[in-house]
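REQUEST
  id: r-88c1
  op: predict_structure
  target: ChrA protein
  payload:
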Amino acid sequence: MQYFKKLLEIFIVSTRLGFTSFGGPVAHLGYFHQEYVRKRKWMDEKSYADLVALSQFLPGPASSQVGIGIGVMRGGVLGGIVSFIGFTMPSVIALILFAYFAQQLGLMEFGIIQGLKIVAVVIVAHAILGMAKSLTPDLTRKSIALFALLITLLIPHNLSQIGVILVAGLLGYFMFSKKEEHDGLSLQVPFSKKVGLVCLSLFFGLLTILPILNSIISSTWLSMVDSFYRAGALVFGGGHVVLPLLEREFVPTGFISEEAFLSGYAAAQAVPGPLFTFAAFIGADMNGWLGGMIATFSIFLPAILLIYGVLPFWHALRKNHHIRGALIAINAAVVGILISAFYMPIWTSAIITPLDFSLAAILFFMLVYWKLPPWLIVLAGAIGGVLIKMT
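RESPONSE
  id: r-88c1
  status: 200
  body:
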């Protein structure tokens, strides 16, 4: 009974954070620190810092993985799942509802979609500036980012993105292996390495088997699961970088229109919680609420399997200079991939007239210099889109 009370507590606290955590992954980590470390003291400062470091090491949504890890430390295997559900559920429900009302009300006719597409331009531009500053501080890493930009822009295929990440990792394995040593691990993992091995086996097994099954079996549902799972498994650098992978999986194939895709991405900025819940909008636009739920499960499953799989082995991985060096170069390549996605399809489909550019400049100023919350930027963008439509 005591254990179930603990799980209920995890669920209540994480759900409240899911309703109130606006501002992206960096802000989420701040909310987590305040709630879990300072207020509730579920973890000490060092353990939390180690958990954040682990989330940066892995592909997938960093804030969600930290939330899952905190749940694991507090309530074991089930604690991580409960924490994930609580933190993710509010934004998933909001985006599924947005997909439904966007279709029913014909929002594009009022210019709202165009405004939201311009919001996407502003949000991604801001993400590029922040990531480039932290992930490409020297000429070598800037050069890797340029290489990734050119390849993914000139060869717009999902395999080119995967290839860029692999090549960058190989370069970093040799070029950045002499970086400084980190402190030792203080996390106490409440399950064995066998559980970790099972999760890692599932992660790599699904990554291999799903594309094969998708090529053999003609099924929209299987194709959707495969695409979302690969996107969740191959994204380094946070939610913004999932955009090009998802866009090139679903827009050219006709599963979702470019307008709906970008409007959903913009709407995802307005809701609290992880940006990966953008998948809920795409799935709901394709196949209703059930599609939204399956899409959400598919894109988050790699992150869940990885955090459970790597936690017991994190100490050894963190001490490996070569692996850390590979991740440094991969993060630099992510910046180039993000710039490529910024140009096409985001910029090319949204900024068409001087009025579009003017609205983008105003929204960028509001976000970067006035530091207004993202939901207000989205609201202003929607209103601006309506006004542009009326001119």
